[in-house]
UniProtKB/TrEMBL annotation:
The lineage of its organism: Archaea, Thermoproteota, Thermoprotei, Desulfurococcales, Desulfurococcaceae. It holds the Pfam family DUF2067. This is DUF2067 domain-containing protein.
Amino acid sequence: MITRRFVIKCSSSDVCVELLNKIMEEISARWMKTQVKGNTLIIEAIGMPYELKSLRYEIENIKRGMEVERMKGGRYSVEDLVKGAKTTVPLDALLLALTLKGFKAKREGEYIITNAPGDTIIDVMRGMSEVLENDEVRFKLPSSAKKIVMVLHTVYDIDPERIIEIMKNYSIIEEADFGYRLKEEWRSALRRLVKLLTSDEWGLGRNERDIEEAGNSSEDR
């Protein structure tokens, strides 16, 4: 018999208590000593090595199941979304991308309120993050222009290089030392581009009115 200590980080102390209660309900026949310290749940258990390995697997499954359930109600913790997507993105750009995809989305503190499914939000976050793998975006665009490319690529599935070309052609960006400079406020530039892309010439769908709606409920971050 050996002793194993499990340290589990939660988004808050309340979540730790909820997780502990679920663990105690679903896992039995093991000696465990538990403690919640702030947003950390500490569990000390005694058992055979194979039992402790199984216990760790069960705890991880319970925690994962809890996170999924918490992401079904339309109120999503930013921390949980980041963990699920394994990446971070600008929250104001994320809200605009969700809105242009036809969902309602706003931010309340450290939560996003939306009717988009959790897996859709995570897919959007991953798609936005992938844009930064493009060297021209990563090294030559200012952060505000990166947001524009992230949103348009994720919503309209346009290659980042093509978006940059359009931005240059319409004098939204111009060459500067070591890269490009955005010539106007990024939401205004995005509005112009969405209007262009949703015109009869391009016909890609949702229009600039959606940006107005999302812009009223988003915050820079």
